[in-house]
């Protein structure tokens, strides 16, 4: 069975003190209200990874980087290697977020290298896939997601694959306030699981966590998380305020199975 996960992607938001306050609030909530069914993840800006890891004492609260380099070390100004991410105390890393793909031009080949580097280094990658509004309007969304999945995942073994978390994040729903309907999200999640089943095995497909991301908030989370193939959320805007993030943790614990 797949891990159920509530993950917060802070993007380039929150300074040291705000980050510390948010982790402390989440940590103390989890200490007072132990969760059984979900894992909670926070992905702060890179310079807060150490602080966040040190403050996240609860075993159910893990830290993720938002990105990392494909290389091990050397002349790569501005980059962070997988071993540095681990050294900072993070256990996960987001790979291929649409903002990395669209704004920073990260292409399938590079993302595949990053995914392999993450797995080889013992990090759990959260691999993001998602279509644009135009692709959806043109009916190309399934093909596009299939291509992204093939490009990123094809060379992994069935033993490695359950360590990769897939996040379906339709670009048109990220930070726009527009959410995929629970039916649209479920349809794509089922498609992704079917892809994993046919390229690996039904057992592997069942073990991989598939998160939904795109304007998830307390008001729509119950319906989204209640879908059979949705294993949790990768959450941007609603994850940077303790109140809404904790509310999402509550809903996740209640609904995700
Ligand atoms: C994200 O950053 O991955 C995301 C889904 O953002 P938001 O929840 O703000 O749409």
Q: If you had to describe this structure to a student in words, what would you say it looks like?
A:
The chain is an alpha/beta fold. It has one domain (5-255): Alpha-Beta Barrel (TIM Barrel), CATH 3.20.20.70. 44% of the residues lie in helices and 14% in strands. The protein has an 8-stranded parallel β-sheet. α5 packs across α7 (141-153) and α10 (218-225) runs parallel beside α11 (242-255). The N and C termini lie close together (9 Å). The protein binds phosphoenolpyruvate. Phosphoenolpyruvate is lined by residues 9, 11, 169, 174-175, 213-216, 234-237.
Defining key terms:
eight-stranded parallel sheet, 11 helices, 8 strands
What's the helix and strand layout?
Elements: E1 5-9, H1 16-32, E2 39-43, H2 49-55, E3 61-65, H3 82-87, E4 92-95, H4 98-102, H5 108-120, E5 124-129, H6 133-137, H7 141-153, E6 165-168, H8 182-199, H9 202-207, E7 210-212, H10 218-225, E8 232-235, H11 242-255
Parallel strand pairs: 1-2, 1-8, 2-3, 3-4, 4-5, 5-6, 6-7
Helicity level: 40-55%
Q: Pick out the low-confidence regions.
A: none
CATH architectural group: Alpha-Beta Barrel
Q: What is the makeup of the main sheet?
A: 8 strands, parallel
Termini gap: 9 Å
How confident overall, as mean pLDDT?
A: 97
Radius of gyration: 17 Å
Briefly note the structural class of the backbone. Answer: alpha/beta
Shape: globular
What's the SSE pattern?
Answer: EHEHEHEHHEHHEHHEHEH
Overall strand count: 8
The CATH topology is given as TIM Barrel
Please state roughly what percent of the residues sit in beta strands, choosing from under 5%, 5-15%, 15-25%, 25-35%, 35-45% or over 45%: 5-15%
Separate helix tally? 11
Structural domain count: 1
The H-level CATH homologous superfamily, spelled out, is: Aldolase class I
Strand order of the largest sheet: 7-6-5-4-3-2-1-8
Q: Which small compounds were modeled alongside the protein?
A: phosphoenolpyruvate
């Amino acid at each position: 069975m797949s891990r159920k996960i509530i993950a917060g992607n802070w993007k380039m938001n929150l300074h040291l003190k705000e980050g510390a306050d948010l982790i402390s609030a989440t940590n103390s909530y989890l200490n007072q209200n132990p969760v059984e069914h979900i894992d909670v993840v926070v992905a702060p800006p890179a310079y807060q990874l150490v602080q966040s890891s040190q403050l996240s004492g609860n075993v159910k609260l893990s830290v993720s980087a938002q990105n990392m380099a494909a290389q091990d070390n050397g002349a790569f100004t501005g980059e962070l290697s997988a071993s540095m991410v681990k050294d900072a105390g993070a256990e996960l890393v987001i790979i291929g977020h649409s903002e990395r793909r669209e704004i920073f031009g990260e292409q399938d080949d590079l993302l595949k290298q990053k995914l392999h580097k993450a797995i080889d280094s013992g990090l759990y990658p959260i691999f993001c896939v998602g279509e644009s509004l135009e692709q959806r309007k043109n009916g190309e969304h399934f093909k596009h997601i299939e291509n992204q999945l093939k490009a990123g995942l094809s060379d992994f073994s069935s033993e490695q694959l359950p360590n990769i978390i897939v996040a379906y994040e339709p670009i048109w729903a990220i930070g726009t306030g527009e959410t995929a309907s629970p039916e649209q999200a479920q349809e794509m999640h089922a498609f992704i699981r079917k892809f994993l089943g046919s390229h690996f095995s039904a057992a592997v497909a069942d073990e991989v966590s598939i998160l939904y991301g795109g304007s998830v908030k307390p008001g729509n989370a119950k319906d989204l998380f209640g879908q059979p193939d949705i294993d949790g959320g990768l959450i941007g805007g609603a994850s940077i305020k303790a109140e809404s993030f904790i509310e999402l943790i509550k809903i996740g614990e209640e609904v995700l199975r």
